[in-house]
Every structure is written in C-alpha cells, then in structure tokens.
Amino acid sequence: MNKLILARFAAVFTAGVLTACGMSSKKGESGDDITVSSAAAEPVMITANGVKADFSALSNECHGYGQGVQVDEKNRTLGALDFNHTYGKYNAKAIREDSKKITLTFDQGYENGYTAQILDTLKEKNVKAVFFLVQDYAERNPELVQRMIDEGHTVANHSVHHYSMPSLTEETCRAEITGLHEYMKENFGVEMTLFRPPMGEFSEKSLAVTADCGYETLLWSFAYADWNVDDQPEPSAALEKLKKAAHPGAVYLLHSVSATNAQILGDLIDGMRSDGFELT
Question: Of 39, 81, 126, 260, which alpha carbon lies 20 to 30 A from 20's?
Fold first, then answer.
C-alpha cells in the first residue's frame, strides 16, 4: 500500500506541481507546466443535498490539477483561480477567495514517523490544519487520527483506496467516498465534509458525484515537491519557497512523510505570521 501510494504521488509531482491528464499545458516563466482547462463544464444545479444532474451525461474526461506558477497582483496562483471559476458549480475549490487566511493541509497516504512532530508544532503554534486521510492510514494509525481530532484539526476524506476518481464507475466513485465516510463515523465519531481527489485527478462527473455525496472538493493553491522521502528539499530553500508563495485564501498542500516539512513547519508558521497572514 505504501509503495503504491508513493508511486502515485511520484507520477503527479514529477515537475514539482501536478501535471495534466486530458488538459492542455503551457510553460510558465520558471519552466513549470501550467495546466489549462480544455473546456468549461456545463452548468448543473447545486442543491442542499448535492448536485442534480444526469451523471451519465457528464464528461468523465480525466483532468490532472496543478496550480501553476503564474500569479495575480495578490500573489494568488492563476491555476487555482481558474479551477474555482470553472468548477465552483460542483462545490469544488482550490483557493478560498472569500478569505484572507491561509489553510495548511496534509495528505496522509502512509505514516513515516513525522506526523506526531507536525502535530506537536501545530499545537505549540496554536494552528489548526486539515488532514486528508486514506482509509488504510486511519486503520493503521488510530492513535494519530484520534489525536488530530482531539486537538481540533479537521480530518478529511482522501478516499478508501487512493484510486484516480475518473477511472472509476459512478458507483465505485461513490463507494470510495462514502466507504471512508462511514468508517470514520463508526470508528471515530466524525462526519467528514471535505474531499481531495487522489493525485489531484478529477473529471466533471467525479466532481458532481462528490458534491452529490454531500462533500466539498478542496484542492490547493500551492504545492511543491515534498513527497519523495528519498529526495527531500533542502530545508532553507523549502522554507523560502513556501513563505514566498503565501497569499490570501491560500490552501497549502504538504505531505507529512516529509522530514523537511516537519523540520521547517514552526519557522514557516512564524514567518507567515510576521508577514501579516493568519493561519486557520
């Protein structure tokens, strides 16, 4: 399971940001690929219970998300803003445009010994984060998951098996979301409301199905290549990169398997606060 998840992370972070599947791309000023939507999704009606739509009529073309490197005057990544504009109708976001705060999120594919240290730092700095769990992680690490809950963090849904959602049937797509939802409800007494599609891969249909399950899809407005445990970024360079990317409404994607993240997290929080940002 661990090698499978790491391989999937590797497939999507080869250029430092996730690349596109079924999307066109262009080069940013730094040479990184920036994903560009190939077509706008057709509007559907969002109700209190999710999406009203004929799911069989929705496109299941696979798209791979990446925030890109181009930014607006507020330092917000254009890829994240474009995602909100194109797919917000499916209760899907990559940036909190209505907020000036920064949200730290961690994808929990497998445990590498750093999550407790990350939780210690968050507690010391009085910061709440979002932890996106795969079911195998929750099953293998109940003490850490319970600690996340007890210390006021948000535990969120990253699917049962970490499959690419567009590769699944509608029924299996739902099962990947609701299966983990029910597991967490039964074993930890929490009802999750946020979903992050594995590998950042989505389709019009998978986003609609996710919304119909009562979830908000939350991607990110900044991520960097922190996931490879055998090729960790140099701490000072990583810290500078993370601080430089700060912007209002930012959603940061970090991986708790990263030794570098665990090492620099306290300094990152202090640096963001000194620059006038609030973390939530």
Answer: 260
